[in-house]
Amino acid sequence: MKYSVIIPVYNRITEVEDLMRSLSQQTCKDFEVIIVEDGSSEPCEEAVKEYEGKVDVKYFFKENEGRSIARNYGMERASGDYFIFFDSDCIIPPVYFDRLNEELEKNPVDCFGGPDAADESFSDVQKAINYSMTSFLTTGGIRGGSVQLEKFTPRTFNMGFSRKVYETVGGFREMFSEDIDMSMRIKNAGFSIALIRPAVVFHKRRVNFRKFFRQVYVFGMSRISLKLIYPDSMKAVHCLPALAVLAAIALIVLAITVSPWFLAPMALYLLAIFIAAYITTEDAWIAVIAVPASVIQIGGYGLGFLKAYITKIIFRRGRNVEEEIMMRKGK
Fold this sequence. Notes:
Layout: E1 3-9, H1 13-24, E2 31-38, H2 45-49, E3 57-62, H3 67-76, E4 82-86, E5 90-91, H4 96-106, E6 111-113, E7 116-117, H5 124-134, H6 136-139, E8 158-162, H7 163-169, H8 178-188, E9 193-195, E10 201-203, H9 209-229, H10 236-257, H11 264-281, H12 284-314, H13 321-328
Parallel strand pairs: 1-2, 1-4, 2-3, 6-9, 7-10
Antiparallel strand pairs: 4-8, 5-10, 6-8
């Protein structure tokens, strides 16, 4: 068995059905699937059982302890040479493992990740959110597999590493941005990491803007937690959303107190997002809603970053500050 696909699940029956259907349609069958139900009140066991004859799948139910512990639970029971992680809200294209095999044969690496995209079946809001999370204009292309402002870091919606990595580095920590933490530990242990662009997954992400804001807000806060653990991990690109929030506030104040023309830079930037989204998606309506999606993505992340920076860096407050510093020291 070459690959063990490990998927933590918490109350996601419909999404698991879509994910399992896509895994059953893979042209390469050299993998097992390990579903770890993390104490769901609505278990997906029956949905998983429907694919037992089509996919080598194992289902486990455990008490709710968090997605990182669920992934570790799955790795302890995995038999593959590589462990692969998908989020339960992903759909995997039929040729995923074929493309992965081709790339790993050409360039063997210890740890890898792939980009994500929007499937045609996704809602317009999901497609707009996907654009905002993968566009160079909003995230620097970090997640979309394109030209990037930050060196690639695998994330658990589409991530894999060898058994040797697991035996050396250990499992995931239960924290926000646990996948970035894991990638940093893998890198610091001297293992190779690569972006495999052909290994694309379709990632549904959040279904509405309220949930999307909450998600990116937490992303912004967790970036400060990562800085406390890995002081050198903070790059200029991580600060850009916070600077954008401060600049937007300043421009709005100047527009109110001095001249409306101070809103021109913001208007031009939003117009650029619309044009780029239209070129990318070829859909005018998705391009329209990609504008508020991008504002939420940048604003939510920036606000979370600023709050955590003020409370944890400046005032050294927050229940996790000492714990994060202890993680940095390896205790």
